[in-house]
UniProtKB/TrEMBL annotation:
CDD domains: EFh. This is BnaA02g17640D protein. The keyword Cytoplasm does not apply. Residues 27-62, 112-143 form the EF-hand domain. Keywords: Calcium, Repeat. GO terms for molecular function: calcium ion binding. It comes from Brassica napus (Rape). The gene is BnaA02g17640D.
Amino acid sequence: MKTTHRRLSSSFTKLCERLSSFKNGDDNIRELQAVFAYMDANRDGRISVEELKKSFNTLGEQLSDEEAKVVFTEEEKKRKMLEAFRMYIDESEDCITPRSLKTMLMKLGELRTNDDCRVMIKAFDLNDDGVLSFDEFAHMMMR
């Protein structure tokens, strides 16, 4: 499994290197949309296992069904984690603050003070900035 992960990582690195030449802004979005459209051969708005394998083949990489499924499983985990993270943040923020944590806990029926929430955040705040980034939240959830 580690060999598969290493090979997938290398393949993604190659794909990212090709995509890294994109400029910021609208051109970047158009180019990424073009890449997605290319990969989405049947135009159903999703990239299937077969379409992913074909795209990797275009890059000179062979991707087995098992490897492609690993990619989809990992992406699904990330998507669900991001969905959970977004439940705890305010719309104007990109991190979990003591205030946003308190708000969500209240919705769940848990009454906590701001100080309680600061203590909870501090336990997983890896860079001591007083808030939880997505990476810190994911790290906390994986423990």
